[in-house]
Amino acid sequence: TKREIMRRSVRSSLRVCGNNRNRCFTAQRTYAASSTSQKSDGDYILSPSSMNSRVQKTAYAVRGELVIRAEKLKRDLSDPQKKGSLDFSEIVFCNIGNPQELGQKPITYFRQILSLLEYPELANIAKDAFPADVIKRAQHLLANIPGGTGAYSNSQGLPIVRQNVAKFISERDGHPSDPEDIFLSDGASPAVQRGLNVLIRDERDGIMIPIPQYPLYSASIPLYGGSQINYYLDESNSWGLSTSELVSSYETAKSKGLNPRGLVIINPGNPTGQSLPVSNMREIVDFCSTHKLLLMADEVYQVNAYLKPWVSFKKVVRDMGDKYKDFEMMSFHSVSKGVTGECGKRGGYVEMIGIHPKVKDEMYKLASVSLCSNVVGQIVVDLMVRPPKEGEESYKLYKEETGKIFESLKRRASFLCESLNKLEGVTCNEAEGAMYLFPQIRLSKKAVEEAKKQGRAADVMYCVELLESTGICVVPGSGFGQRDGTWHFRTTFLPPEDKFKGVVDRMAKFHANFMKK
Questions:
Q1: Computed from CA positions of residues 100, 105, 110, 116, in that sequence, does the dihedral angle turn out positive or negative?
Q2: How is residue 348 annotated by DSSP?
Q3: What would the mean pLDDT of 45-71 be, rounded to a whole number?
Q4: On the CB side of 417, how many CA atoms lie within 13 Å of its CA?
Q5: 276-282: long-range contacts at Cβ-Cβ below 8 A with a sequence spacing of 24 or more?
């Protein structure tokens, strides 16, 4: 049929699309338009030429070309007519920190309470299925959630949850936290974007971000009309950060007429996995104070610290004394990472520290435009910051489950790093935290030239061929930023431990064959 011909045409174009992601998306738009209308581009009220150009400039590599192709291959694997044509039996999505998609089991305590909140009658229908402390906690939450999980909450978030978040922060840092400084959100990302939205006034306002960085920042800054100011992490020093690099980046931006307004720090790092020492964090606070920069502390991987204790920026600031009592920062956390891994529940928060009260009013207004963040996600935040306590019936199982997840992540991170460092032309820093490794791959001149012929960056070509040969989906380093002349990819270490060696072996075999070519 004509529809099937169109569908095949789109699939074909996805196979050959290069580093220019707009080509992929244009193919999708052409297909949709052709199936419904014969109008030309100029006949549409809203068309690529008349839409917001800031949206078109936005790119998000974590779900770009490779993932589109991976989803297509996944469909092919379920098609009896195509299944035998591939050299692998499954797609392994190592492109994104999505633990439960790769087999991590939800925390029992969390899901039991969510079940009772969504269907309170279960406490009577299946009373013996739930520990007494679970029933008690669910009933307490229900009593403090007007209308239950199906009703809108306060735009800033449920008061009981914000109170528990503030208590969690106070106990974590040894310094007080105010529930009125807490804004709950659908994961950390919307909170980050609101922060950028209020911070950026026009294209002269710049936000300093690490390179490599998480593409949320490089996507959102131009979307809100600002300018991206890069500062580079030091790969030769375990992806460390020097204040001299910050100063150089700041001064270069000023010389170009930009007005640096904020500094983004991702700690532990994504995609690089480094965990900052306290001495370095103090230097960063000093730098922000001296240059009047708002610190945006992305701390969503705070539980994923494998080699040394993690310390929050708020604790560092407060420990530095009265000189910094008015220091301005936003700190972000999420239920998607850590050992919780509830990405689909979309729960997170931002603590606004030292922020002008009127600006917080504006943040509340922005939150209220969306009415509220989803209530189930808010509840998962509550469970994350207030898990079962020692002496409660659910405590032992909770500690067993979270401990196993943490230790398994730690083992997988170490094993993958060791395995990557054995490959020809590959070097990889160990993961001090987070869920990723960011190895450098040294590609031949021949490979780089072949990639240019394809209209691709060399690391994109490498990752596409890895996917096509093994079913393993990773993200090219060019999607996160890297120094010119270097090539990387980001991979999670989230595949289940019983399958992990097989995934690594497939990756190693592919790499050896690629280097021979």
A1: positive
A2: E
A3: 76
A4: 19
A5: 276/241, 277/308, 278/311, 278/316, 280/240, 280/241, 281/311, 281/313, 281/316, 282/316, 282/320
Q: Quote the CA–CA distance of 192 and 382 in Å, as a whole number.
A: 20
| pLDDT tens string 149-178 | 998 899 899 999 999 999 999 999 999 999
Report the alpha-carbon angle 315-377-342, nearest 5.
Answer: 80
* DSSP one-letter code for 488: B
pLDDT of residue 60: 64
At residue 93, what are phi and psi to the nearest 5 degrees?
A: -85, 90
Q: Which two tokens stand for residue 299?
A: 């701390």
CA atoms of 441 and 44, how far apart (whole Å):
45
Cα separations in angstroms, 235 against 55, 264, 273: 32, 18, 11
| Residues 164 and 179 sit within 8 Å (Cβ to Cβ) | no
Residue 432 CA: distances (Å) to CA of 184, 196, 211, 336: 28, 28, 18, 19
d(CA 511, CA 438): 15
**pTM, two decimal places:** 0.87
Q: Considering only CA atoms, which of 203, 365, 192, 213 is closest in space to residue 294?
A: 192
Tokens of 129: 């299925």
Q: Are 489 and 462 in contact (CB under 8 A)?
A: yes
What pLDDT does residue 37 have?
63
Q: Sort strands 489-492 and 475-476 into parallel, antiparallel or unpaired.
A: antiparallel
Give 91-149 as a 3 state SS string. Answer: CEECCCCCHHHHCCCCCHHHHHHHHHHHCCCHHHHCHHHCCHHHHHHHHHHHHCCCCHH
Which amino acid belongs to residue 284?
I
Instruction: Give pLDDT tens digits for 290-314.
Output: 999 999 999 999 999 999 999 999 9
CA 339 – CA 352 distance, rounded (Å)? 25
- Bridge partners of 356, per DSSP, are none
- Note whether 504 and 512 are within 8 A (CB): no
Q: pLDDT tens digits for 319-362?
A: 999 999 999 999 999 999 999 999 999 999 999 999 999 999 99
Using an 8 Å Cβ cutoff, are 157 and 378 in contact? Answer: yes
Query: CA-to-CA distance for 199 and 490, rounded, in angstroms?
Result: 29
Q: Are 381 and 338 in contact (CB under 8 A)?
A: no
Residue 232, SS3 per DSSP: strand
| Continuous segment of H or E residues that includes residue 490 | strand 489-492
What contacts 22, CB < 8 A, 6 or more positions away? 56
Q: Residues 491, 476: contact at Cβ < 8 Å?
A: no
CB atoms within 10 A of CB 111: 15
Region for residue 279 given its phi and psi (left: phi exceeds 0; alpha: psi -120 to 50; beta: otherwise)? alpha
* CB 107, CB 402: distance < 8 Å: yes
